[in-house]
Design a protein that fits this description.
Layout (H helix, E strand, L loop, with lengths): L7 E3 L15 H6 L3 H9 L3 E3 L3 H10 L16
Parallel strand pairs: 1-2
């Protein structure tokens, strides 16, 4: 952040045997009301790579997390 760089984290869950982010991942987020995504935000990550972008977006909105989205980006409700 000090150098003006964005920090990216991968929250993808590959399998039970391949752990990428200390179980602070998509599966944990879905099982525990987005808790792990909130932890990633509180750590300071700017970009969270996820297989569940709509659920992450909804979590961030519900929890009033600071969201930085490009102006031309939109979320379509299903």
């Amino acid at each position: 952040h000090e150098k003006g760089l964005l920090i990216w984290v991968n929250a993808l869950t590959l399998s039970d045997s391949i752990i990428l982010s200390a179980k602070i991942d998509d599966d944990t987020a879905i099982a525990h009301d987005g808790e792990s995504w909130g932890k990633l935000v509180s750590i300071g990550f700017d970009i969270i790579q996820t297989d569940w972008p709509l659920l992450l977006y909804q979590y961030l909105v519900e929890k009033n997390k600071k969201i930085k989205i490009k102006e031309n980006y939109h979320v379509q409700k299903l």
